[in-house]
């Protein structure tokens, strides 16, 4: 009798393990940056807990996380992190405010490049995107693997936007802004920088009809055509796949994976990366003193000039 109970216990254990694996996705987080990062994870209100909410990932290393198929949430990377004299952990960009490496339910403080997921949503599809709505701190790429339905396309922002971030949006290493030439570690959204409802798609501008792309969001969109650039940028920024596992790559190399760049099945006529924006790490030399329409026109002219100059160099 004892042997039978032991046998049944083993069978139940392996069956549970098997079905748990089937009902889970594998997210492999990869650091291609030349410096360490501290990925953070935030689950939606109704999502099951994850085995980790934050960890250190050194340059060139990866970590695979098992994610429940019913999960929704965000993944991002913190940079320039360390402990103060009291042992409190904090980061210059995308800090989650927990005072620890684990975020414990805290979200990324803008600006931060975000990977957003809703697994097993409508029609059993996963919905995913890379969002610059809360600003930008690192290049990021999402690659779906082994999906059975949906477009399963790669998406992300492969361009380093920090060096050429408009001065009104730039964040310096010491958490300051408008740091002059170069030195940027993140690029704020216009909503965070100015708090204007027109940029935040709030108050009288809270619908798709009243809130369109701004000159600032177009700066992000031109460089990263598939990333969310403002709140209602859904049509060209949300991607789907069923029963897939995912690679989330920080600081991917734009030209090293033509196979990934060309493996689009969803028919969206947008490149994953705008090759005319590959030289955006040059310092921005424009003035930060202009305002209103003059500032908007200067940002548009700046984007066009950078694109044209880069096209000539490529």
Word description of this protein:
It is a single chain. This protein has 314 residues and is of the alpha+beta class. It has a domain at 22-162 and 223-250: Thaumatin. Helix content is 21%, strand content 24%. The protein has 6 helices and 13 strands. The strands form 3 sheets. Strands 2, 4, 5, 6, 7 and 12 form a 6-stranded antiparallel sheet that branches. Strands 3-1-13-8-9 form a 5-stranded mixed sheet. Helix 4 (215-223) packs parallel to helix 6 (292-313). The longest helix has 22 residues, at 292-313. It is globular and about 45 Å long. Mean pLDDT is 80; it is low at 8-21, 175-182 and 277-314.
Low-confidence stretches: 8-21, 175-182, 277-314
Order of helices and strands: HEEEEEEEEEEEHHHEEHH
CATH topology label of the domain at 22-162 and 223-250: Thaumatin
Residues in helix, %: 10-25%
Q: Please tally the β strands and state the result.
A: 13
How many whole angstroms does the radius of gyration measure?
Answer: 21 Å
Q: Identify the CATH homologous superfamily of the domain at 22-162 and 223-250.
A: Thaumatin
Q: β content, as a range?
A: 15-25%
Contiguous helical run count = 6
Tell me about the biggest sheet?
6 strands, antiparallel
The separation of the N and C termini measures: 76 Å
The shape, in one word, is: globular
Overall pLDDT: 80
CATH class of the domain at 22-162 and 223-250: Mainly Beta
CATH architecture of the domain at 22-162 and 223-250: Sandwich
The structure class reads: alpha+beta
């Amino acid at each position: 009798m004892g042997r039978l109970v032991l046998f049944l216990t083993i069978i139940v254990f392996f069956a549970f393990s098997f079905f748990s694996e089937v009902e889970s996705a594998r997210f492999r987080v990869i650091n291609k940056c030349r410096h360490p990062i501290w990925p953070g994870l935030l689950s939606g209100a109704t999502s099951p807990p994850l085995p980790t909410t934050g960890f250190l990932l050194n340059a060139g290393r990866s970590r695979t996380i098992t994610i429940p198929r019913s999960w929704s949430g965000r993944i991002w990377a913190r940079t320039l992190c360390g402990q103060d004299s009291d042992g409190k952990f904090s980061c210059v960009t995308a800090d989650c405010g927990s005072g620890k490496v684990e975020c414990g339910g805290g979200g990324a403080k803008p600006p931060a490049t975000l990977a957003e997921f809703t697994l097993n949503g409508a029609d059993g599809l996963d919905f995913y995107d890379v969002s610059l709505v809360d600003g930008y701190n690192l290049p990021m790429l999402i690659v779906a693997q082994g999906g059975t339905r949906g477009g399963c396309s790669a998406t992300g922002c492969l361009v380093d936007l920090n060096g050429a971030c408009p001065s009104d949006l730039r964040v310096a290493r010491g958490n300051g802004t408008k740091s002059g030439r170069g030195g940027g570690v993140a690029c704020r959204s216009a909503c965070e920088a100015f708090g204007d409802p027109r940029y935040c798609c709030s108050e009288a501008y809270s619908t798709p009809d009243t809130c369109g792309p701004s000159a600032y969001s177009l700066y992000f969109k031109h460089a990263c055509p598939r990333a969310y650039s403002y709140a209602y940028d859904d049509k060209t920024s949300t991607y789907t796949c069923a029963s897939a596992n995912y690679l989330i790559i920080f600081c991917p190399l734009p030209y090293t994976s033509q196979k990934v760049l060309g493996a689009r099945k969803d028919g969206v006529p947008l490149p994953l990366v705008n090759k005319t924006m590959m030289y955006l790490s040059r310092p921005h030399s424009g003035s930060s003193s202009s305002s209103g329409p003059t500032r908007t026109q200067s940002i548009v002219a700046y984007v066009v000039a950078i694109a044209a100059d880069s096209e000539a160099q490529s």
